[in-house]
Sequence to fold (85 residues):
Amino acid sequence: MSEMDETELRRLRWKSRRGMRELDQLFGRYLDHLWRQDSEEQRGVFRRLLACEDDKLWHWFMGHDNPPDAELADLVQRIRSIPPN
Fold:
């Protein structure tokens, strides 16, 4: 991975810290297991996900609601399917 990718990954780890343990763990799993292999397009979807409000994220990841955007919905499902460490 390039130096620029490593810098971006560190920045995303910091931005992923939401103060909600469940969300922090889910985002951390994505960054640990999928981010490096994802396309730039998929990485962009993750960046958009991080821009969403915490209460919406909580409802999406707990299965109480679905994101209105199909790309975000697919990513939420992918992240939810990553097994815990």
